[in-house]
Amino acid sequence: MLRQILFLTSNCLTAYHYDGRKLERVGCFVGAEAGLAHFDSYLERVNDVPALVLTDLVEEDFRTDSVAHTHGRDRRALLERHVSRLYRGTDYRHSKVLGRDPQNRRKDEVLFSGLLNPEFADMWLQAMAHHKVPVVGIYSLPLLSTRLVKQIWNKRSDVLLVTHNAASGLRQSFFSNGQLRFSRLTPVGTELDPANYAQFVHAEIGKTKRYLSNLHLLQRDVILEVCMISGGPYLVELERMRSQETLTHYSLMDTVDVAKRVGHHGHLPEHHCDELFAFALARQREKNHYANDVHRYHFRLFQARQALHAGTVLAVIAAVLWSGMQIVDGLLYRNETRDTEQLLAIAENRYLEIQQRAPASELAAEDVDLAVTTAGRLQEQ
């Protein structure tokens, strides 16, 4: 089934189509009146195609906190109250339980996140709602990166995943024990050549490490493992910088190799990961992060229509099968009737032949039967 992935950033919205085999970029719309007008024209053609909205925004906030350990409805209610208190000004909020708090086993560590600028996301989602686009969910790129890290990072140590998306910038996400703890997005100037780009990335990684130390997520004397996905001359320059400055804790991966690991064999830009994340979202069954019931209303209707169509098809198939069985039963009954008629005709002809060969007698059949019965009784006596 065709799906559309709408990659939402602070600068624009990029649309991709995925048909189950390949990912195709179909358009990019800037966040202005002209861009929204083009986006409306685009939605008129694809308003019946399910949409997965992928966000990579500077205004996305992440916080780790401890809450009481509960289960079921109590846990959901507690997390909803806590995340509503943290992000009162936005409906785009999410909570994820990371596990038990190592300092207090009676509490859970929870990652809370939210989009702090809801007006920007509302602008695009209102256009989708106007055209009744079935929105499957709204997904955070840093939260989506958790699965990517599990696929490409086989070490047990904590890691800082660094990716560069053309539409948004340099994304740095810190993972501890395979769980996202913090993420940071930095705009990247388009005028940077590969050499300056490598120095810029190295400086930003240093800032992130100091920030993690201030948040007490990383000790100051710990060497932070860095996994960066890049390609082309930028990857060559990063490799040169790593060897010159002896950055043994840097693990550099080619975008093409990473794409093959996740099953994407199409063309990718040299060092950008936009299509990589869009493809990962299209392929994986990721739980919704930020969409509420209002955002997913038309998708619920879409599911109901799909279920109704499937039910209608099943009813038609059942009716055809039932009709076929009735036809088969009728044919079998007709064949059995014909065979029975043939046996009756044979028996009747046989009876006539026996009757014709039997000697003529004036006695009635009842009298003969009575005489035979009487003779049998006399013989017994």
Please provide a written account of the structure.
- The protein contains 10 helices and 13 strands.
- The chain has helices at 33-46, 72-86, 118-130, 141-152, 194-214, 232-244, 255-261, 274-283, 297-357, 365-380, and strands at residues 3-9, 12-18, 23-30, 51-56, 60-68, 93-101, 104-115, 135-140, 159-165, 169-176, 179-186, 225-230, 250-254.
- The chain has a 5-stranded mixed beta sheet, sandwiched between helices.
- Helix 5 packs across helix 6.
- It is elongated, with a radius of gyration of 38 Å.
Briefly, what is this?
With 381 residues, the protein is an alpha/beta fold. Helix content is 48%, strand content 26%.
> What number is the mean pLDDT?
88
The helix/strand order is: EEEHEEHEEHEHEEEHEHEHHHH
Percentage of helical residues? 40-55%
Record field, number of beta strands: 13
| N→C terminal distance | 94 Å
Largest sheet: 5 strands, mixed
Strand order of the largest sheet: 3-2-1-4-8
Structural class: alpha/beta
Number of helices: 10
Name the shape in a single word: elongated
Rg (CA only): 38 Å
Which regions are unreliable across 5 or more consecutive residues at pLDDT < 50?
A: none
Binned strand content = 25-35%
Topology, element by element:
Blueprint: E1 3-9, E2 12-18, E3 23-30, H1 33-46, E4 51-56, E5 60-68, H2 72-86, E6 93-101, E7 104-115, H3 118-130, E8 135-140, H4 141-152, E9 159-165, E10 169-176, E11 179-186, H5 194-214, E12 225-230, H6 232-244, E13 250-254, H7 255-261, H8 274-283, H9 297-357, H10 365-380
Parallel strand pairs: 1-4, 4-8, 9-12, 12-13
Antiparallel strand pairs: 1-2, 2-3, 5-7, 6-7, 9-10, 10-11
Helix pairs in contact: 5-6
